[in-house]
Amino acid sequence: MRKIEGLAFSKSWESDFQKEAYLIKNSLKNKNNIIPLIHIGSTSVKGLKAKPIIDMLLVVNDN
User: Fold this and answer.
1) Residue 31 pLDDT > 80
2) pLDDT of residue 3
3) Which of 1, 2, 21, 48 has its CA at a distance of 20 to 30 angstroms from the CA of residue 34?
4) Which residue segment(s) compose the domain that 17 sits in?
């Protein structure tokens, strides 16, 4: 079995998320349907070791 080790929490993960969220929101044609773009997963939890992959959840209004 392959061993997976997490990295120590990095303060840059929040700013990395903010930068990517900005790019995603601005690339969408209809920005009015976006409710939030949420930072999820282990990199969103302060103090938690994690794989350095920023997970995001994009929520849209389907009305």
Assistant:
1) no
2) 87
3) 48
4) 12-60
Distances (CA, A) of 38 to 20, 41, 43, 44, 59: 11, 10, 12, 9, 8
pLDDT band at 14 (very low <50, low <70, confident <90, very high): very high
Those residues whose C-beta lies under 8 Å from the C-beta of residue 3, and which sit 6 or more positions away, are none
Structure tokens at 45: 């939890």
Is 55 among the domain residues? yes
Sign of torsion, CA 17 20 23 29?
negative
Which residue in 14, 23, 25, 26 sits closest to 52, CA to CA?
Answer: 14
Q: How many CA atoms lie within 13 A of 12 on its CB side?
A: 4
How many domains in the chain?
Answer: 1
pLDDT at residue number 26: 87
- Examine residue 4 and state whether it is found in any structural domain, yes or no: no
